[in-house]
C-alpha cells in the first residue's frame, strides 16, 4: 500500500462501549486519581498543544493543561512529548515524582486536583481546556469542565461530578463542547435511511427520479468537478435561512477553531452557521477546489500560531499529494454512488468522516441537505433551531419559521402506508390517541427496524433508545404534564412553597425531590425517575404530599391498577437498563434485544404502548361504575 | 523442502527483531492458524487491553494452544464468564467479528500488534478492509506491512 492511501479504522462509539464494558464496568476510570501534572521551572503549570487529546479538534486553540491520574501516565506523556530522561519502564511505578527526570526544566509534580482546577479557571476562565491522561489509552482519558459551581469530569463512561473524595455520575449534565468520537445521535446517519429531499440533483437533472447510469454519473462528475469555475460565486452562497433542498455544511478550522461560515460570510450574514450550497455536488466541488489544496499545504509545511505553538509539516510532498488524491477520489466516488443509487444522508456522513480522518484543517460538525437536518435532527441529537443565537432580535421568528418548515416536512413525509397499517393493527384504537410526534417516532423506528433487518455486528442501540424515548415521552405527556398543570392550578405557588418547606424538613428522598423540581420548574423527569415515582406510590410516606397528590391524580385514570403494577415496573426496569442504558453506555445492542424491545413495546401482541395509551385515558363515570361492581 | 508451519513455529519462539520479507508471510500464517479465547455463552472474542492500541481494546491470539488455555482461565476469573479456546478458521471472519464487537485490533502472542484499517477511498467504512501488522522492535527498515 502506498503511504497516505489508508486510514485507521476507527469506530469510537463501539470502542467506547467495549472499553466501558470490560475495563471501566460503569466506573469513571479503571483506577482512582492520584493527581499529577507537569510543570516547568517558571510556571506553576504548563499548557500543551496535545494536553487534552480526548477533545480532539474541539480543544481550545492554545492547547490544554494536562492532568494525570498517576505517575506512569505523566511519564508516558513526557516520553511521547520528548521530555523524559529517566528510562520509561515498569520501574517508574515505585518512583516518587521528584525522582523522575525530565528535560528543559520540566518536572512531574503531585498536586491537589481541585486546587489546580481552580487555579486554571482563575487564570484562564473557560479559554484553556484541562485534559486527563492525554496520549494514554482512551479509556483513561477525559476532560474537566466547570458546571455551575461544581467541577465535572467527562470520560468515555459519561459525566462525573468531582467531590472532595469521590466522583458522582451526572447523566443530566451536557458538556458545552464536543469531544473526539462524540457519538452522533441523529437518525440521518443510519445506513440506508432515505433523504426527505425529493430532487437532490435538481440543478443537474431536474426532478427526474430515474437512476443515473454509471457512464452518465461519471460524465456529470467530470463536468462538475472539472470546471474551472469560481466556487465562491458560482456554488457557495450566503443565506440566513437555507431552503430545505439546499446542501449545508457547518465546519470549523481545526487549528484556529474559527467557524468557516463566519470567515467566509462575515458575522452579519450568519444565522445558523452553515455554508450553503445548491446541492451536494457543489459542496463537494468547494471542498475539492478550495479546502483540500489548502489542507495539503498545511500538511506539507506545518503551521505556527501567533501566540506560540504549532505543528511541523511532513515535508513529504509526494505523500501529501497521494493523500489529496485519495480524498478527492473518495469524494468523487461518494458523489458517483449518490447519483447512481440515489442520494442518502449517509453520503453526507461519509464526507464528514473523510474530512475528519484525512484533513488537518477542516472539521465538519453538521452536513447534509437542510431538509434532512430539520427532519432527522442535528448530529448531537438536537434540533436545527438550537443553533439560533437567542440574542438575535428576531430569534423567536426564526425558530417559529424553522419549526413550521419541519412540520410541513413531517406531513409530507408521512410513513409509508404499510408501516402505518402495522402500527394501527398493533395498537388498535390506541393508534388514534398517539400524538403527532410519537406517531413519527414509532413509525420511523419500525421502518428502520424493517429496513436494517438482521445484520451481523450492527449496533441496534439507535432503535432501542427510540423505544425508550417513546415511552418516556408518552408517560410525561399523558401523566406527568397534566398532573403538573392541575397541581399548580390547584394549590398555586404558595402551596408549592409550603410543600417545599415541608420537604426540606424531612430526610432527603430523591423521588420527592425530583417530583418537587418537576412541579416547581419543569425540570425533566427521565424514565428512571418516573419508574421510581410510580413504584414508590404503593408505599407512600404519610408526610409526602407530592406523592399523595400524584397518586390521587393516577387514581382518576382508566388503568390505575396497571399503572401501579409490578408488570409495569418490570417493563420500565428493562427499558431503562436493558434497552436504553445498555445501548448508551456498555453493549452493542443485538438484533435479538432490539426485536424483543420492539415486540414488547410497539408491535405486540398486547404491546406496552397500547396498554399505556388506554390506561392513561381519564376515567369516565361508566368506568367508575364498572370498578364499583367488581 | 522445509514445511512452512515448522518455520513459523520455530521463528515465533523468539521475537522477530530483524525481519525479512518472508517473515511477513510467517506472521500471517501464524495468525491464520492461531488460537483465541471467546465467551462460551455469546461466542464473542474476549477483550484485553494493549499498550500498542490506544483507542480501544483488542482480542488476543496465540500460536501456542496451552498459552491460550492459560489466558482463558484468567479471563474466566476476571470477567466471571465461561470462556473457551477456539482455532482461527477464517482470519478476516475473526477480524470483522472483533471489529463488530468494538475491538481496535488483535495482538499475536502478546507481542505483534495488528491494527485495522480502511482504504481512504472505501465508501463503506463501518468495518475495516485492511490489516496492518508491525514488528515492534524492528532493527531494520522492515517495520510493518499491510494486507
Explain the overall architecture.
Helix content of chain A is 49%, strand content 10%. By secondary structure, chain A is α+β, with helices and mostly antiparallel strands. Chain A has three domains: 12-169, no CATH class; 187-409, no CATH class; 433-629, no CATH class. In chain A, strands 4-2-3-5-6-7-8-9 form an eight-stranded mixed sheet, sandwiched between helices. Chain A has a three-stranded antiparallel sheet with strand order 11-10-14. In chain A, a hairpin with a 2-residue loop joins strand 6 (142-147) and strand 7 (150-155). The longest helix of chain A has 44 residues, at 461-504. Chain A starts with 5 loop residues before the first strand and ends with a helix. Chain B has one domain (21-135): Trna Endonuclease, Chain: A, domain 1 (3-Layer(aba) Sandwich). Chain B has four helices and seven strands. In chain B, strand 4 (103-108) and strand 5 form a beta hairpin. The interface between A and B is large, with 42 and 34 residues. Strand 1 (6-8) of chain A pairs antiparallel with strand 5 of chain B, so a sheet runs across the interface.
List descriptors:
heterodimer; A: 630 residues; alpha+beta; 3 domains; eight-stranded mixed beta sheet; three-stranded antiparallel beta sheet; globular; disordered C terminus; B: 147 residues; Trna Endonuclease, Chain: A, domain 1; seven-stranded mixed beta sheet; disordered N terminus
Amino acid at each position: 500500500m502506498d503511504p497516505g492511501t489508508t486510514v485507521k479504522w476507527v469506530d469510537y462509539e463501539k470502542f467506547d462501549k467495549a472499553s466501558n464494558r470490560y475495563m471501566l464496568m460503569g466506573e469513571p476510570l479503571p483506577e482512582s486519581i492520584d493527581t499529577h501534572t507537569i510543570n516547568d521551572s517558571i510556571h506553576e503549570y504548563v499548557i500543551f498543544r496535545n494536553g487534552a487529546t480526548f477533545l480532539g479538534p474541539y480543544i481550545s486553540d492554545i492547547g490544554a493543561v494536562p492532568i494525570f491520574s498517576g505517575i506512569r501516565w505523566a511519564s508516558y506523556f513526557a516520553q511521547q512529548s520528548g521530555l523524559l530522561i529517566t528510562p520509561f519502564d515498569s520501574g517508574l511505578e515505585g518512583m516518587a515524582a521528584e525522582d523522575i527526570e525530565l528535560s528543559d526544566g520540566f518536572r512531574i509534580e503531585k498536586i491537589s486536583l481541585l486546587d489546580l482546577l481552580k487555579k486554571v479557571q482563575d487564570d484562564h476562565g473557560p479559554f484553556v481546556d484541562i485534559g486527563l491522561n492525554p496520549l494514554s489509552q482512551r479509556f483513561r482519558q477525559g476532560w474537566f469542565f466547570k458546571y455551575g459551581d461544581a467541577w465535572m469530569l467527562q470520560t468515555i463512561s459519561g459525566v462525573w461530578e468531582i467531590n472532595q473524595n469521590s466522583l458522582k455520575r451526572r447523566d443530566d449534565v451536557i458538556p458545552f463542547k464536543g469531544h473526539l468520537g462524540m457519538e452522533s445521535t441523529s437518525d440521518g446517519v443510519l445506513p440506508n435511511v432515505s433523504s426527505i429531499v425529493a430532487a437532490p440533483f435538481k440543478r443537474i437533472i431536474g426532478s427526474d427520479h430515474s437512476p443515473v447510469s454509471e457512464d452518465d454519473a461519471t460524465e456529470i462528475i467530470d463536468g462538475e468537478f472539472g470546471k474551472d469555475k469560481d466556487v465562491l460565486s458560482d456554488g457557495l452562497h450566503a443565506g440566513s435561512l437555507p431552503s430545505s433542498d439546499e446542501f449545508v455544511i457547518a465546519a470549523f478550522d481545526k487549528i484556529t477553531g474559527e467557524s468557516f461560515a463566519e470567515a467566509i460570510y462575515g458575522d452579519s450574514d450568519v444565522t445558523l452557521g452553515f455554508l450553503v450550497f445548491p446541492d451536494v455536488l457543489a459542496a463537494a466541488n468547494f471542498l475539492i477546489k478550495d479546502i483540500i489544496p489548502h489542507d495539503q499545504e498545511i500538511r506539507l509545511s506545518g503551521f505556527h500560531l501567533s501566540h506560540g505553538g504549532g505543528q511541523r509539516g511532513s515535508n513529504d510532498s509526494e505523500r501529501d499529494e497521494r493523500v489529496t488524491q485519495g480524498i478527492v477520489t473518495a469524494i468523487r466516488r461518494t458523489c458517483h454512488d449518490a447519483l447512481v443509487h440515489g442520494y442518502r444522508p449517509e453520503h453526507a456522513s461519509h464526507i464528514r468522516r473523510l474530512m475528519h480522518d484525512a484533513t488537518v484543517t477542516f472539521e465538519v460538525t453538521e452536513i447534509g441537505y437542510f431538509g434532512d437536518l430539520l427532519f432527522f435532527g442535528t448530529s448531537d441529537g438536537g434540533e436545527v433551531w438550537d443553533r439560533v443565537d437567542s440574542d438575535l432580535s428576531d430569534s423567536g421568528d426564526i425558530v417559529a419559521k424553522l419549526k413550521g418548515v419541519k412540520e410541513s416536512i413531517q406531513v409530507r413525509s408521512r410513513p409509508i402506508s404499510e408501516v402505518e397499517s402495522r402500527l394501527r393493527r398493533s395498537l388498535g384504537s390506541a393508534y388514534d390517541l398517539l400524538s403527532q410526534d410519537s406517531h413519527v417516532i414509532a413509525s420511523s423506528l419500525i421502518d428502520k427496524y424493517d429496513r436494517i433487518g438482521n445484520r451481523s455486528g450492527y449496533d441496534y442501540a439507535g432503535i432501542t433508545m427510540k423505544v425508550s424515548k417513546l415511552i418516556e415521552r408518552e408517560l410525561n405527556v399523558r401523566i406527568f404534564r397534566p398532573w403538573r398543570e392541575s397541581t399548580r392550578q390547584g394549590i398555586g405557588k404558595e402551596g408549592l412553597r409550603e410543600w417545599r418547606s415541608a420537604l426540606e424538613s424531612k430526610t432527603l428522598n430523591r423521588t420527592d425531590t425530583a417530583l418537587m423540581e418537576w412541579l416547581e420548574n419543569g425540570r425533566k423527569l427521565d424514565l428512571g425517575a418516573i419508574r421510581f415515582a410510580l413504584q414508590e406510590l404503593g408505599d407512600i410516606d404519610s408526610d409526602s404530599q407530592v406523592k399523595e397528590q400524584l397518586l390521587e391524580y393516577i387514581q382518576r385514570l382508566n388503568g390505575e391498577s396497571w399503572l401501579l403494577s409490578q408488570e409495569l415496573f418490570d417493563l420500565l426496569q428493562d427499558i431503562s437498563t436493558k434497552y436504553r442504558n445498555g445501548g448508551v453506555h456498555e453493549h452493542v445492542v443485538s438484533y435479538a434485544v432490539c426485536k424483543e424491545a420492539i415486540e414488547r413495546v410497539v408491535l405486540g401482541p398486547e404491546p406496552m404502548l397500547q396498554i399505556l395509551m388506554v390506561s392513561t385515558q381519564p376515567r369516565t363515570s361508566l368506568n367508575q361504575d364498572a370498578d364499583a361492581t367488581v | 523442502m522445509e514445511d512452512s508451519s515448522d518455520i513459523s513455529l520455530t521463528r515465533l519462539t523468539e521475537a522477530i527483531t530483524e525481519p525479512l520479507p518472508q517473515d511477513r508471510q510467517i506472521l500471517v500464517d501464524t495468525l491464520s492458524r492461531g488460537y483465541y479465547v471467546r465467551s462460551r455463552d455469546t461466542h464473542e472474542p474476549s477483550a484485553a487491553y494493549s499498550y500498542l492500541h490506544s483507542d480501544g481494546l483488542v482480542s488476543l491470539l496465540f500460536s501456542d494452544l496451552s498459552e491460550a488455555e492459560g489466558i482463558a482461565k484468567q479471563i474466566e476469573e476476571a470477567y466471571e464468564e465461561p470462556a473457551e479456546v477456539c482455532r482461527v478458521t477464517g482470519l478476516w471472519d475473526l477480524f470483522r467479528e472483533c471489529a463488530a464487537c468494538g475491538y481496535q485490533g488483535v495482538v499475536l502472542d502478546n507481542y505483534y500488534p495488528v491494527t485495522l484499517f480502511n482504504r481512504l477511498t472505501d465508501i463503506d467504512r463501518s468495518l475495516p478492509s485492511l490489516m496492518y501488522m508491525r514488528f515492534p522492535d524492528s532493527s531494520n527498515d522492515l517495520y510493518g506491512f499491510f494486507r
